[in-house]
Design a protein that fits this description.
mainly alpha, 10 helices
């Protein structure tokens, strides 16, 4: 199977059920049908979402409940803008709902999201969660960007997929994606706008190491997940070699895996202080 075929196949089946959050009974908002995934998560009263402990006024930030010691979050939910208190699981789902709303603000059409929600609902036999919709959208977007040789946009989609995997507890998948993003960054990904003209690609190649960089936020996130998985330096290098061994030759990246690892491993060490 080709790299592009694998991309299209990634997450194309029924989403995994083990870690996905089952939505609360959805309050169907007015507007496009995709908004059915925006659910009434959290509690709107100043009470702990874990044990029901009452506060004198609405907490305005993340804190631990003085009664049960469980951590909760204070956010505005996408469904109706109401201030709510959330468990960690609902906070993660809220982040995915926020991300879907942001997609529409960035130009993704209601019709595209409608079609995606309907397709997932048919596969799952229930209303999908926002994270399930977001994951499917990002996987399809990444495949489309790869076909068009828009490697900068592809890189962004893969990073967002990593965050989606992390929200669902799929930390090894998230780490592989984060490593892939850094491999791309160190090769200087560019957007070719769909052009396949050989002369144009020779003059403006899809990757230019002169523009290579490492994003501190991604390096810090990578370290965080490495620590969460309790990986040794050797484990991390083996995972890198697996990712780079697949991505590098397929995309004909200009830099060797050895030189990329040298720079990436130093950044990971430096990030620990």
């Amino acid at each position: 199977m080709s790299f592009f075929a694998k991309l299209k196949a990634t997450f194309s089946g029924t989403p995994a059920s083990g870690t996905a959050l089952t939505p609360a009974s959805a309050t169907v908002a007015r507007g496009p049908s995709w908004r059915i995934v925006l659910t009434a998560i959290g509690v709107t009263t100043p009470t702990c979402p874990h044990c029901g402990h009452a506060f004198e006024k609405m907490p305005q930030r993340k804190r631990a409940c003085p009664k049960c010691s469980a951590v909760f979050y204070s956010r505005k939910r996408s469904l109706d803008g109401a201030k709510v208190l959330l468990t960690e699981a609902h906070a993660r789902e809220g982040e995915a709902q926020d991300a879907l709303v942001t997609l529409t603000q960035e130009g993704v059409s209601d019709a595209d999201l409608d079609a995606l929600v309907h397709a997932l609902q048919g596969q799952l036999g229930r209303v999908p969660t926002a994270d399930e919709v977001l994951t499917q959208h990002l996987a399809r977007a990444a495949a489309a960007h790869a076909e068009a040789l828009n490697w900068g946009l592809y890189r962004n989609a893969r990073f967002n997929l990593a965050e989606s995997c992390a929200r669902r507890g799929q930390h090894e998948d998230a780490l592989r994606l984060l490593i892939e993003v850094s491999v791309l960054d160190l090769n200087g990904p560019r957007n070719c706008g769909g052009s396949k003209d050989p002369e144009l690609l020779r003059r403006f190649p899809p990757f230019d190491p002169k523009t290579a960089f490492l994003a501190p936020g991604i390096i810090n996130r990578t370290v965080e997940i490495i620590d969460l998985l309790k990986l040794s330096p050797d484990d991390t290098r083996r995972l890198f070699e697996s990712v780079a061994g697949s991505v590098g030759p397929t995309l004909r990246l200009p830099r060797s895996a050895t030189s990329v690892w040298r720079e990436l491993s130093k950044a990971l060490v430096d990030a620990r202080g």
